[in-house]
Amino acid sequence: MSLAAQAGQKLFFDSNLSGNKNMACATCHDPAYAYGPPNSLSVQLGSDPTQSGARAVPSLRYKDATPPYNDVAANPDNVTSNAPGGGFMWDGRAATLADQVAMPLLNPVEMNSSKAAVVQAVQNASYVDLFKQAFGADVFSNPDAAFADVGKAIEAYEHEDTSFHPYTSKYDLYVHNKIGGTLTAAETRGLLIFNSGTIGNCSACHYAGANFDGNQGLMTDFTYQAIGLPRNDTSIPNNPSPIPANQDPTYYDMGLCGPLRTDHQPGTAGIATPDPYCGMFKVPTLRNVATRGAFFHNGVLHSLVQVVHFYNTRDTNPEYWYPATGGTGAPIANPSYALFPQYASGATVQKFNDLPAAFQGNVDEELPMGTGDGGSNTLGSGTQPRAQGSTPIMTEHDMQDLICFLNILSDGYKPPATQPTSGTCVN
């Protein structure tokens, strides 16, 4: 690796960069967990342990091909119309990986440091000479520039160290026709469901084809979607990890339109009313998705079983996912994967309860959630949800096969000496 990348590696694992000298980048972006969090918390505790973030920590793998944010970004599939895409963080507000580094470092509920403190920590570090070799002997003469160089060093490390983009999954062996890449019957069916525009439709956003800069199989098109997630708060019975910020009923995290991003907020000059950006969050890669313990920007779901069922039943059975009021009938038990264990017949479901009603027209109604199968598929565009109480588009068998496929996207796959002949993901 270059000198800058070597310095970046040291910085990435240095807990002295945080305010309480107890948190490194690697604390939340653990290499053993695909550079994602090592636990199932919806949001991670900060350097100040009385504080926690407001969004789930994403994996840092396969970020090297991400383009800067653009309101009218080209889609790598060369078919879909230009739309918001690119950028780093869940709302794309960082243009580069170097820019992204500063955000957790300076956030008081994350690493809780300052530019001056970070630069001082580097000056006191055992690797200070390496940092000077990379950025010049007088690098500390301008503290602001030195802080920017910290970001550049970590960016170089993420670009140059192949552990951030290893392409060592069973899926990679399969697409490159390598030994050990033969899919089982269940995995093959799952792949077909993933790609099917009339069943799973996952590839509509989690694009697996040729991507920017010659990359392929990134499992994202870098776009933004509003999928109407449940609010991660204490209304969910036995919620293991509600987001503290959601204790304020007037607080809404709406992604592209704020509050952390400020250039698309409602009322901003040149932005339509109602604001079309509200509720939209970046589509993440699905590589290593099976290693995660919390899913989506608010970490409200905690297993792939929940995630796949949410997509399949969000509209047909919203009572599984959102709180409900009223109802006169006897409680009806919901499935074990549901967020809400029971539902009273006739109750009114508070659907899309993490997005103000004024912006719920932005919610995606593309298959399998709604009925859209191409083009603009939001409620506001007239695309209809699947009717409550109707049959979901995927069967239980379909969903199990899809989960089998998602599991082969995990890096570090070692082909077994003999292929299994039985098991959930075999036949």
From TrEMBL:
Q: What is its main location?
A: other
Q: Where is this protein localized, as stated in its record?
A: Cell envelope
Statement: the UniProt record of this protein carries the keyword Oxidoreductase: yes
Cytochrome c domain ranges (all copies): 3-126, 185-410
> What keywords appear on the UniProt entry?
Heme, Iron, Metal-binding, Oxidoreductase, Peroxidase, Signal
What highest taxon heads this organism's lineage? Answer: Bacteria
The annotated region (Disordered) lies at 369-390
EC numbers on record: 1.11.1.5
Listed Polar residues bias regions: 378-390
Instruction: Choose one Gene Ontology CC annotation of this protein and give it.
Output: cell envelope
Q: Where is the signal peptide?
A: none
Q: What class of enzyme is it?
A: oxidoreductase
Which Pfam families does the entry link to?
CCP_MauG
Q: In Gene Ontology terms, what is one molecular function of this protein?
A: cytochrome-c peroxidase activity
The protein's matches in PANTHER family, at most eight in alphabetical order, are given as:
BLL6722 PROTEIN, CYTOCHROME C PEROXIDASE-RELATED
Name of the protein:
Cytochrome c peroxidase
